[in-house]
Amino acid sequence: MSREPAALEARGLVMGYGRRRRPVLRDCSFRLPTGRICALVGPNGAGKSTLLALAAGVLRPTGGTLRVLGAGPAEARPRIGYVAQNRPLYPQLTVAATLRLGAELNRGCWDRESAERVAYGAGLDPKATVRSLSGGQRTRVALALALGKRAELLLLDEPMADLDPVARHELMCALLAVVVERDTTVVIASHVLGELADVCDYLLLLEEGQIKLAGESEDLLTAHARLTGTSPDFAPHTVVESRATGRGHTALVRVQGPLDEVSRLVERPSMEELILAHLRNPGAPALFTGSASPAPSQEAAA
Amino acid sequence: MIEYRIDRGTGVATYLQIVQQTKHALRLGLLEPGDRLPTAREVVEATAVNPNTVLKAYRELEREGLVQARRGLGTFVTKSLGAAAAQSPLADELADWMKRARTGGLAREDVAALFSSVLEHEFTEGEQ
Where are the beta strands (DSSP E) in B1-128? Predict the structure, then answer.
């Protein structure tokens, strides 16, 4: 299977801050094909923000490689929209001036309509200075800049964290409308699992600096099942998480071979259940579906 | 035009909700042959679901022969779904039955329970 350049492709990526400290990313390898909307999830300190900053070319890895849209992160920068967690903006500029700056820096490709729609959606005053804005309003402006740039890849670090529910929905709708038009690839680092499940079609689960789950949401879901029965033995399936419930035993398993639907209740886990089960059980083996394995030079993708 | 309402709490897959709501609209005559379904952009703009989910639902509807995608134009309804049922004698008979149930002292919940139990019994294949 010949592959076009991935949006992101990491091989043995290592990132440490200082020699004495444990690296934040350790031998991190994965692939994210273009055109996907990907959730990047993981516990606090798992390395989500570091991974995004590396992809945006803001940080340089200690080891390994990261290709972004088929190029090095620095070269790919003009094609990337990055909304960092601290929403770096010029505090003394007004919102209108910030957008003018965005237009100036991205001359020839600036999408004024999308940028203004996102920035002014909730009645934000164009003459307000960035300094005077609330956290959620800053997010709006930062997102407006990223969307106005017509980036091919959007890297959004906790974009929904400081937004109220109405703004969340509104901005997510605005984001998706732009994405569907331009076939943009999006990576959203977030803790809000429930909302992401409907928005994203790709998942990267990062745990202690390594990728534990990677692939199409649909494929990852079908690779797992929730089984309930009287026996505590779930072989041949790989148990991710199990517990006793009264007389029965229930487990979230990685399916290995046929499912016995006679003696057990077989249910399909939700994305949220799947993620939580893996977060609670860091010992579960890693799983990459075909399109998520970093391009094997010779052997065919599994 | 039809507007989809995605309920995240039901456990029904999102694409299936779109399929079911479209069929429901076809049955009620809210959608008729020739009508255009909203574009993927219009749906994601209103519901914040993944665009591929919308396309998956439309492919499913197309596979069932209910709609047809026309390149560059959109997705159009090609078939109505038992819109006749609403006007058939069956509708009158059911209304009549409901009236008798009500005058017979059955509460709304009783009727609903009875109705769905008979429905389950008659349509065991769980046809949507």
Answer: 67-70, 74-77
